[in-house]
Design a protein that fits this description.
1193 residues; mainly alpha; 50 helices
Length: 1193
C-alpha cells in the first residue's frame, strides 16, 4: 500500500473552500474554531462531548474540506504526543511526512519528559480512554465510504508509521498506540466485510440453485456486483492492515520501551480473538511466544492475557495445539516467575489449557500442584483452582446418582482424594495452607463436615478400602483447618496482612457455619475423642474444635426442632457431659505436653461466664484440679522424704502430675491451691542433692513462673489483698535467685530453662512496669546486680556463640541431620533474642552488648539480623553509649588478637582484617546524617585514641605503643566526622604524640600516619592522600540551609581537660612527603580564632549533653559518602533505620575537587596572610629536619 499522501481532485479546493480559509480553521463539535480556540485535542481531553458527536463533526468537516480536516487530525496526534508545535497548512501541502516529523521533533520540548500518556491523574487516564475510543469510532463511522477514498487512511497510516519510527519516545509511544487501535478497528471492519461476503455468497448460491423459471437474473447480477465490491473493500482493508502490521507492529513489538511492547502484544491478542480466520496462525502467534521471554513483567503479563483470551474459547484453543506444544514449557516455567502477577496469570492460563486433554503431562501438573503451599495467596489460590479442576472436576459415569452427603457420597470420594494429595505432597504441617488454597473454589467440599465425620466414625462397607491411621490423622487435620477457616474467615499466618473487614453477607455465612459446626460436633466430638483417645496427633487436633463452638447452642440449639425445649436442653447437657468426660479421660491417659495444653485450652474455651454452661464446666474443672493437686502433694511428700532414694516409678508419677498442673496453670489461675511452696521446695531439694531429674526441674520452674505471673496479674488489677504485694515481691526474688543458681547446673536443658525464665522475669519486673499509671508497683521492680548480669552474659557466650559441631557433640548423641541442626539453631536464636531484649529495654547495662556485637561478623549468617536490630534499638536509646560499646567490642577483639598472635601486629593477617571489616560494618550502621551521630562518633574516636596509646611498647622507648595498630581500625570511622570535628579529634590525637612519633615513617607507624591523614579536612577522599595541608574544599549547602555563622554554636573548651597538666609539645602539621608544591594561598583555608568551630567537640569527652549538635551546619554530599567505591555498594544493605537514601549515580555522588569552591559566608574559609606564612614556615622547617636526619644516617 502506498505510504504517500494522495492528491486532491482539482475541484475539491473550490468545493471545500479550503483555499479561502486560514489554515487553522476547522469544524469541531458542530461549529468552526479559530486558532487559539478549542482544538480536537482539547475536545477529546475534556471529554465533555460524546465521542460519537465529535467524530460526526469531524466527518462533516472532512466532507466539506478534507485537507483542513486531515490537518486537524494530524495536529491532534502531534498534540497528543505532548509536542507544542503544530503542522501548518503550508507544511501539509508542500512537505513530506518525514520532513514534518523532523520539524516537529525540533520543536519538541526536551525539558519535560512527561506527555499525556505518561502523566498521572484521573484526567489523563480518562484521556487515554477517550483517545482510543475516538480512533475506534472514527474508523467505524468511516467504514462505508471515507476509508476507501485512498486519501484519508493513506495519510493517517503514513503519518503514524513515520512517527512510530521516531527517536522521540513521546511520538513513538503515541503513534504506536494510535496505530494499534487503528488496526483493531480495521480488524472489526474486515470481520464485518467477511461476514457480509459469506452472507452474499450464500444468497447467491441459493438464488443460483433455484429452477430456471424462478431464478432472478437481476438479483444474481446484483449479488455478484455486491460480492465484487465487498471483495475490493476487503482487499483494501487487508492492504491497510498489512501496512500497519509491517510498518509499525513488526518494529515496535521489540521497542526499547516496555509499555510500547505491551501495547503491541495486547492488541495482537485482540486481533487473533476477533478475526481468528486471518490472524490465528503461526505467523502471528510466534510474536506472542517470543515475547513471553521479555525481561519486563508488564509485557509477559500481556502475553499471558492474550493467550487467555484465546483459550477461553474451546474452539480457538483446539487450534493452538502446535503453539502450545512449542511454548508449553515456557508457560509452565512462568508459574515460578519473579513477578507474582505474572505467575498468577500463568497458572490461570494452564487452568484453561486443561480443556485440551493430554497437553499437560504429569510433571507439568506437579510443578503447579506444589504452589498451593505458596506464601503468596493469589498464587496459592490460582494453584488451588488448577488442582481442583484437575482432580475434582472430572466425574465418571459410576459417580452419577451417589448420595449428596455421607461416606458413600461423591464428596466422600473427593475428600479422600484431598487426603491422598495432602499426604503425597509430604508437607504435612501445612494443612492450613492447602485448605486456604482450595477455599475459594472448593469451600462446599471442605465444609462437608458430615462426610468427614462419617469417614472417621462409620465402618467401611464391603469392598471399600478403609482409611489407614496416617490417612485418618491427615483427615482430622484437614477437618480442623476447614473449621478454623470457616470461623475465622482469614488466611493462615504468612498469607495475609491482617484481618479484613467482613461484609454483611460474609458475617452471616460465618455465623451459619459456626452454628452448623457446633450442632454437628457437639454430638460427634465425644465419639471421636472416645475412638481416638490414645492417639496423640488426632486428640490434639480434635481438642481444638470446641474453641470454635457457638456455646449458646448448648442452651438454644436446633438439633431437633420438633423436640420440646426441655427435651432439647437435656440432650445438649448430655452431650456436654459426654464431652467433659472424654476430656477428663484424655488428660488422665496422656502426659504429652501438646495434648495437655490442648485440654487446658478446651476447658478455658468452655468456661465462659457469659453462658449458662459455665457452672457445669467450672465444677468439672475444679474437680479435676483438686484431684491433680492432691495427688501432686501426696506424691511430692513421698518423693522428697529424707533417707529414701526415690525410684523411677515415683519420679514418673511426680513428673506426669507436675506436667498436667503446669499445662493447666498456663490458662487457668490456680492461686487458691498455693503451689509455690511445694514447687520451691522441689527446686531447692534439686539444688541441694543435685540428682533431680531434669524434666521435673524444668516443669517445676515453668509452673512456678506461671504462679508468679498470675499473682502479678491479680496485684496489677487491684483485686488482691493488702499483703499480696509483699508476698509476691518475696516469692519473685527468691525464685530469681533460685534460677540464678540453676544457671550453674551441669544439665544444658535446665540451664536454658532457667535462663529463659530469668530473662522473662527481669523484663516483666523492670522499671518499665510502672508505666501507664502503675506507680504503685514500684516495690516490685527488680534490677539485676552485676553478678547476675555477668552470669547471664556468660551463659550466652557459652551456649549460643558456638560452632555447629560443638553443638552437635553436646546434644547427647542426637542425630546429625539437617532438621536437628535447624532446631538447635532456632533454640539458640531464641536464647540470644531473650538476652538482647534485656539490652534493648535497658534492663542490663548497654556495654554488656560489646560481647554480643563483636560476634557480628563471625556469626553473621546465624544471628546477624538479631545483632543488627539490637544495635539499632540500642542506638535509639543512647547514641553515645552505643558508640562506646561498639569501640569496646573492637578493643576486646583487638586484645584477643594480641593474646593469640603476640605483640607484633601483622595487619595482613585474617584476624586483623576481620576486625577492620567489622569496624567498616559498624561505620555503615551510623548512616549518612552526620549531624545526628556527631557526638557519638566523637566519643568513639576519643575512646579509640586513648586505647591506642594506653599501653607503652614492650620493646622500650622509641617503639610504637602496643595498641597503635588499633588506629588503623579506628580510621574506618573517620568519614563519619564532619570537617571541624576532624580538626578537633586531630588535636586530641596530637596530645598523645611526640615530635619523634610525627617524624617516624617506618611500617610499624603506618597506622598512625593513615589515621592522621584520615582526620585531615578532605582526607575522606578515596585516595587518602598523605598531604595534611589545609583543604580548599568548601561546603555545598542546599538553598534552604542556614548560613554557617547562624548555625554554629560556641562550646567551652573542656575536651582537653584530661591532659591540661601534661607538658605535651606543640605539634606541627605532618610533613608533605608526596609533593613539594604548596597550594595556591588564595585557595587555602585557615581556622579563624574568633570562631568556635575548632572547639565544637571540646565538651563531648568531659560531659554529655543532649542536643549538642542539633544546630550545626549541614554536611555536604562529599562528607556523607564512604571513602571507597565498595562501601557505596554496602550502604543499602548495612544501613541503619535512621539513615536516609541517596538515589544518585555513583559517579555524581562525589564532585570534583575543582568544583568545590569555598563558602565565603563561612568564617573558616577566610585566612589571614600571617597565618598562611606561619604554616608555610612550619612546612619548610619539617622538610629541613627530614633532610638533616637523612644526612646523619
Amino acid at each position: 500500500m502506498a505510504a504517500k499522501k494522495g492528491k486532491k481532485a482539482p475541484g475539491d479546493k473550490a468545493k471545500g473552500g479550503g483555499a479561502g480559509r486560514a489554515p487553522g480553521l476547522g469544524r469541531v463539535n458542530g461549529h468552526y474554531q479559530e486558532n487559539g480556540m478549542e482544538t480536537l485535542f482539547e475536545v477529546v481531553k475534556m471529554g465533555k462531548s460524546a465521542t460519537q458527536s465529535v467524530v460526526d463533526d469531524w466527518i462533516e468537516a472532512y466532507k466539506h474540506d478534507r485537507d483542513h480536516a486531515l490537518l486537524d487530525l494530524i495536529n491532534f496526534f502531534i498534540q497528543c504526543s505532548g509536542c507544542k508545535g503544530a503542522v501548518s497548512g503550508e507544511m501539509f501541502r508542500h512537505m513530506q511526512n518525514s520532513e514534518i516529523i523532523r520539524k516537529m521533533t525540533e520543536e519538541f520540548d526536551e525539558d519535560g519528559g512527561d506527555y499525556p500518556f505518561t502523566m498521572a491523574g484521573p484526567q489523563w487516564k480518562k484521556f487515554r480512554i477517550n483517545f482510543c475510543d475516538f480512533i475506534a469510532v472514527l474508523v467505524r463511522q468511516c467504514q462505508y465510504s471515507i476509508i476507501y477514498d485512498e486519501y484519508m487512511m493513506d495519510t493517517v497510516i503514513s503519518l503514524l508509521t513515520g512517527l512510530s519510527d521516531s527517536q522521540v519516545r513521546a511520538f513513538r509511544h503515541t503513534s504506536t498506540l494510535a496505530a494499534m487501535k487503528l488496526m483493531t478497528a480495521l480488524v472489526n471492519v474486515a470481520l464485518n466485510l467477511s461476514i457480509n461476503m459469506d452472507n452474499t455468497q450464500r444468497q447467491y448460491e441459493a438464488e443460483r440453485n433455484k429452477v430456471l423459471a424462478k431464478r432472478a437474473n437481476d438479483r444474481l447480477e446484483n449479488l455478484l456486483q455486491k460480492r465484487k465490491e465487498l471483495q475490493e473493500n476487503q482487499d483494501e482493508i487487508e492492504n491497510m492492515m498489512n501496512a500497519i502490521f509491517k510498518g509499525v507492529f513488526v518494529h515496535r513489538y521489540r521497542d526499547a520501551i516496555a509499555e510500547i511492547r505491551a501495547i503491541c502484544i495486547e492488541e495482537i491478542g485482540m486481533w487473533m480473538k476477533l478475526y481468528s480466520d486471518a490472524f490465528l496462525n503461526d505467523s502471528y502467534l510466534k510474536y506472542v511466544g517470543w515475547t513471553m521471554h521479555d525481561k519486563q513483567g508488564e509485557v509477559r503479563l500481556k502475553c499471558l492475557g492474550a493467550l487467555q483470551g484465546l483459550f477461553h474459547s474451546r474452539e480457538l484453543g483446539a487450534r493452538l495445539e502446535l503453539f502450545t506444544s512449542r511454548f508449553k514449557d515456557r508457560i509452565v516455567s512462568m508459574t515460578l516467575d519473579k513477578e507474582y502477577d505474572v505467575a498468577v496469570q500463568a497458572i490461570k492460563l494452564l487452568t484453561l489449557v486443561l480443556h485440551s486433554d493430554e497437553i499437560l503431562t504429569a510433571e507439568d501438573c506437579e510443578s503447579v500442584y506444589h504452589l498451593v503451599y505458596s506464601a503468596h495467596r493469589p498464587i496459592a489460590v490460582s494453584a488451588g483452582e488448577f488442582l481442583f479442576k484437575k482432580l475434582f472436576s472430572h466425574r465418571g459415569p459410576e459417580e452419577e446418582g451417589l448420595p449428596r452427603r455421607g461416606r458413600q457420597s461423591l464428596n466422600g470420594s473427593l475428600i479422600k482424594t484431598t487426603v491422598f494429595f495432602y499426604l503425597e505432597s509430604e508437607l504435612h504441617e501445612h494443612g492450613a495452607y492447602l485448605v486456604d488454597s482450595l477455599w475459594d473454589c472448593g469451600s462446599e467440599l471442605l465444609k462437608d463436615w458430615e462426610s468427614m465425620i462419617s469417614l472417621l466414625l462409620d465402618e467401611p462397607v464391603s469392598g471399600e478400602e478403609a482409611l489407614t491411621d496416617r490417612q485418618e490423622t491427615a483427615l482430622v487435620e484437614i477437618m480442623l483447618c476447614a473449621i478454623r477457616q470457616a470461623c475465622e474467615c482469614h488466611p493462615p499466618v504468612g498469607r495475609g496482612t491482617g484481618k479484613r473487614v467482613l461484609s454483611a453477607k460474609e458475617k452471616k455465612t460465618q455465623l451459619d457455619d459456626r452454628t452448623r459446626i457446633t450442632e454437628m460436633f457437639a454430638v460427634a466430638l465425644p465419639l471421636l475423642l472416645a475412638k481416638y483417645c490414645v492417639d496423640i496427633d488426632k486428640v490434639t487436633n480434635l481438642l481444638q474444635i470446641p474453641k470454635y463452638f457457638d456455646l449458646d447452642i448448648y442452651t438454644t440449639g436446633r438439633l431437633e426442632k420438633v423436640c420440646t425445649f426441655l427435651h432439647l436442653f437435656l440432650i445438649m447437657q448430655f452431650h456436654l457431659d459426654a464431652l467433659l468426660r472424654q476430656i477428663w479421660e484424655v488428660q488422665d491417659k496422656h502426659t504429652d505436653t501438646e495434648v495437655l495444653e490442648a485440654s487446658s485450652t478446651t476447658y478455658h474455651s468452655l468456661c465462659n461466664e457469659e453462658f449458662t454452661i459455665f457452672n457445669r464446666v467450672d465444677i468439672a474443672r475444679s474437680q479435676l484440679l483438686d484431684e491433680l493437686v492432691d495427688k501432686f502433694n501426696t506424691l511430692l511428700e513421698d518423693f522428697l522424704q529424707e533417707g529414701e532414694e526415690p525410684d523411677e516409678d515415683d519420679a514418673y508419677q511426680v513428673l506426669s502430675t507436675l506436667k498436667k498442673i503446669s499445662a493447666f496453670h498456663n490458662a487457668h489461675d490456680l492461686s487458691k491451691w498455693d503451689l509455690f511452696t511445694s514447687n520451691y521446695k522441689l527446686l531447692n531439694t534439686g539444688l541441694q542433692n543435685g540428682d533431680m531429674p531434669e524434666q521435673i526441674v524444668i516443669h517445676a520452674m515453668q509452673c512456678t513462673h506461671y504462679i508468679i505471673l498470675w499473682h502479678l496479674a491479680k496485684v496489677s488489677d487491684g483485686s488482691s489483698l493488702k499483703g499480696d504485694m509483699v508476698t509476691l515481691r518475696k516469692q519473685m526474688r527468691a525464685f530469681c535467685l533460685m534460677c540464678q543458681r540453676y544457671l550453674n547446673s551441669i544439665n544444658n536443658a535446665v540451664k536454658e530453662q532457667a535462663f529463659t525464665i530469668l530473662c522473662d522475669l527481669l523484663l516483666i519486673f523492670s522499671h518499665q512496669m510502672m508505666s501507664s499509671g502503675r506507680e504503685q508497683l514500684e516495690p516490685l521492680v527488680y534490677t539485676p546486680d552485676s553478678s547476675l548480669q555477668a552470669e547471664l552474659l556468660n551463659f550466652i557466650l557459652d551456649q549460643v556463640f558456638i560452632d555447629q559441631d560443638e553443638d552437635n557433640n553436646s546434644t547427647d548423641g542426637q542425630q546429625d541431620d539437617e532438621a536437628s541442626k535447624i532446631e538447635a539453631l532456632h533454640k539458640r536464636r531464641n536464647l540470644l533474642a531473650a538476652y538482647c531484649k534485656l539490652i534493648i529495654y535497658n534492663v542490663v547495662e548497654i556495654n554488656t552488648g560489646a560481647d554480643i556485637f563483636k560476634q557480628y561478623m563471625r556469626y553473621y549468617n546465624d544471628y546477624g539480623d538479631i545483632i543488627k536490630e539490637t544495635l539499632s534499638k540500642t542506638r535509639q536509646i543512647d547514641k553515645v553509649q552505643c558508640a562506646k560499646t561498639l569501640v569496646l567490642s573492637l578493643q576486646m577483639l583487638f586484645n584477643d588478637m594480641l593474646s593469640e598472635l603476640g605483640f607484633n601486629v601483622d595487619r595482613s593477617t585474617s584476624a586483623f582484617c576481620g576486625i577492620k571489616e567489622l569496624s567498616r560494618r559498624f561505620s555503615l550502621t551510623f548512616g549518612l546524617d552526620q549531624m545526628k551521630t556527631r557526638e557519638a562518633i566523637a566519643m568513639l574516636h576519643k575512646d579509640g585514641i586513648e586505647f591506642a596509646f594506653k599501653e607503652p611498647s614492650p620493646q622500650g622507648q622509641g617503639s610504637p605503643p602496643l595498641n597503635l595498630a588499633f588506629l588503623d581500625i579506628l580510621s574506618e570511622f573517620s568519614s563519619k566526622l564532619i570537617h571541624q570535628d576532624k580538626r578537633t579529634v586531630h588535636k586530641y590525637l596530637e596530645r598523645f604524640m611526640t615530635v619523634q612519633m610525627a617524624l617516624q615513617r617506618d611500617d610499624c607507624w603506618l597506622p598512625l600516619i593513615s589515621y592522621r591523614n584520615s582526620l585531615q579536612v578532605g582526607g575522606d577522599d578515596d585516595t587518602m592522600s598523605v598531604i595534611s595541608g589545609i583543604s580548599s574544599r568548601g561546603s555545598t549547602r542546599s538553598k534552604k540551609s542556614k548560613s554557617a555563622t547562624a548555625s554554629k554554636r560556641k562550646l567551652p573548651e573542656v575536651w582537653m581537660n584530661r591532659e591540661q597538666n601534661m607538658q605535651t609539645p606543640v605539634m606541627m602539621h605532618s610533613p608533605h612527603l608526596t609533593s613539594t608544591v604548596l597550594r595556591d594561598p588564595k585557595k587555602m583555608r585557615q581556622e579563624d580564632s574568633s570562631q568556635p568551630h575548632n572547639k565544637c567537640l571540646c565538651v563531648l569527652l568531659s560531659r554529655r549533653g543532649s542536643g549538642l549538635m542539633e544546630d550545626d551546619e549541614e554536611p555536604i554530599v562529599e562528607d556523607v559518602m564512604m571513602s571507597s567505591e565498595d562501601r557505596l555498594e554496602d550502604i543499602n544493605e548495612d544501613m541503619n533505620f535512621e539513615t536516609m537514601d541517596i538515589d544518585l549515580p555513583a559517579s555524581k555522588n562525589r564532585r570534583e575537587r575543582s568544583e568545590l569552591k569555598p563558602d565565603y559566608f563561612d568564617p573558616s574559609s577566610i585566612m589571614d596572610d600571617s597565618v598562611r606564612i606561619i604554616n608555610f614556615l612550619q612546612c619548610c622547617f619539617t622538610y629541613l629536619l627530614l633532610f638533616l636526619c637523612n644526612r646523619s644516617m
